[in-house]
Amino acid sequence: MSTGRIGYDGVVATVPVTVPYVRYSIHSAHWWLGKALGALIGQAGVAKQQVDGLCVSSFTLAPDTAVGLTQHLGMSPRWLDHIPMGGASGVIGLRRAARAVQSGDANIVACIAGDTNHVDSFRHTVSQFSRFAQDAVYPYGAGGPNASFALLTRHYMREAGATREDFGKLCVAQRANALLNPNALMKKPLTLEQYLESRVIADPIHLFDCVMPCAGADGFLVMREEQARKLNLPFVRILSTIERHNAWIEDPIQMRGGWTMDREEFYSLAGVGPEDVDLMQAYDDYPVINMMQIEDLGFCDKGAGPEFVRRHSFTTDGSFPFNTNGGQLSVGQAGASGGYLGMIETLMQLTGAAGPRQVADARIGLVSGFGMINYDRGICTAAALLARSDA
């Protein structure tokens, strides 16, 4: 049954920017977010005052939120949103900014995400991540997501028949893609043998299954198509978006995400199907979540992710181009920017700006977000279908 979703005709996304990531930084999150905003207005050729909407995601901005950041940035937006949804933030920021522009609440919205990474930042973040973390995880020595994803990974392996070799194939392919990305922090090739022999972190998770925390920022602009054309900016069209929170609460442990609840409408609104997608960027804090998203977004049946992985190359010049910038597993995870990484890459691919990692003839891209892991599940899911301006 239709829920009355309406399209995004006339609203576009443009100006993907990345403030190059670094392993550690003495700067604040405010500095990184300000750098992203500066890059956006510089590349768009607009004055800061013309940006009348702002959407912000950050884990290390505290005690400020988006409203406090406006004073640091010298902005006076008439539309403001703060999206603390981790890996789903990029898609959710896009869809809410698009609705703001569509309704006339803002003309140009800057969507920015960024975090710093001091020596102690990650420990502080995971200790304060959620009430689940404070009460049920961190006190028992399982600080951070590794133990939770070990639980999810073991369950998926048992249910779907996935092997470490299957997860390794994804990691190796993403590293090959990352070697074509100057912003990726992982600069060395990765072999399957190296992946399999890496040290155990939380069985069955090993070293190369985990993202590396770092500092950085990303951003993009949302505006009307006529505004983008007036500014002579390459842009992408928004075909469809979805978000869902705390899906399938009856499942004792997560094996499926909220994408499955809205997938039919997701493709119906866009007028395309999974077979029309030229590239996919999935939130990849661990490879098991890659497989879950591939299944839940209709590229194969549930539980068939391992076989799908065995049939494809996932490289930029091969079959099913996937996380074509290397993903977080080889680029690094700059906090909430991890939720923007796939969005930025898709905008670059669909505007022909991806350089040596450009996927030939890419017309339609899918971005998938997954965020806010508690003990046994991630509770935010989102996805967007984007199209090249002439597609």
UniProtKB/TrEMBL annotation:
Residue span(s) of domain Thiolase C-terminal: 267-373
Entries under CDD domains matching the protein: SCP-x_thiolase
Pfam families in alphabetical order: Thiolase_C_1
Molecular function terms, GO-annotated: acetyl-CoA C-acyltransferase activity
Gene3D superfamilies with a match to the protein in the record: 3.40.47.10
InterPro entries: Thiolase, Thiolase-like, Thiolase_C_2
Keyword annotations from UniProtKB, A to Z: Transferase
Protein name per UniProt: Acetyl-CoA acetyltransferase
